[in-house]
């Protein structure tokens, strides 16, 4: 049975950030993820995880200046020193939270620009190497261009090729089913092909990015397929609740921790 992680960036927004840990645990989640922990101290987050017996499934390395529109800096020439500092900052939070996987965002850049391509590969190789020293996986997530126009890594094939070319055991794919359906469709066949390099899965309905209980995808079928394929990682619930988070958890009841 999949282990679901509540995404505290999108879910439980009725609570302040640190209180979302308590709310997710009360709702039956055994794990959490979110985009960024950096607005709270590592100690405060570790305390919420411990007191609620929650596992930290995932978070992202710092993304550059998010408010100014940056969506990662890994593919941005001239930012390598900043990236190295970001890796150390993320590792401080990793040590406190016990997370075993971190997502490195590529940034807004032309995927056909040679400088961006070589910069991205250098950043990925560096970050994966540094994380490997701590036993942590580095994840790359293709993101669809409707949600993130101009994003560098907008194709699952490109991520698959880079992971194969780098040949680093801790470099893995973040398979967000929502993005895959929008970019490529054919989710089941892609899961079968890519699960061996997948370090984390995320879900949401398509096209609305709400609860995984309707619209274009049949998640009951996909959960069965993910089980059948032997996936033993987390599934991040990266969706925007249609209304109050708790009112939309009907789909989760069979999986909730009691
Ligand atoms: O799918 C997403 O948008 C996230 O998983 C992410 O890390 C970047 O926003
Ligand atoms: Mg995602």
TrEMBL record:
<dbReference type="InterPro" id="IPR050417">
    <property type="entry name" value="Sugar_Epim/Isomerase"/>
</dbReference>
<dbReference type="GO" id="GO:0016853">
    <property type="term" value="F:isomerase activity"/>
</dbReference>
<dbReference type="InterPro" id="IPR036237">
    <property type="entry name" value="Xyl_isomerase-like_sf"/>
</dbReference>
<protein>
    <submittedName>
        <fullName>Hydroxypyruvate isomerase family protein</fullName>
    </submittedName>
</protein>
<dbReference type="InterPro" id="IPR013022">
    <property type="entry name" value="Xyl_isomerase-like_TIM-brl"/>
</dbReference>
<keyword id="KW-0614">Plasmid</keyword>
<keyword id="KW-0413">Isomerase</keyword>
<dbReference type="InterPro" id="IPR026040">
    <property type="entry name" value="HyI-like"/>
</dbReference>
<comment type="similarity">
    <text>Belongs to the hyi family.</text>
</comment>
<feature type="domain" description="Xylose isomerase-like TIM barrel">
    <location>
        <begin position="21"/>
        <end position="253"/>
    </location>
</feature>
<dbReference type="Pfam" id="PF01261">
    <property type="entry name" value="AP_endonuc_2"/>
</dbReference>
<dbReference type="InterPro" id="IPR053398">
    <property type="entry name" value="HPT_OtnI_isomerases"/>
</dbReference>
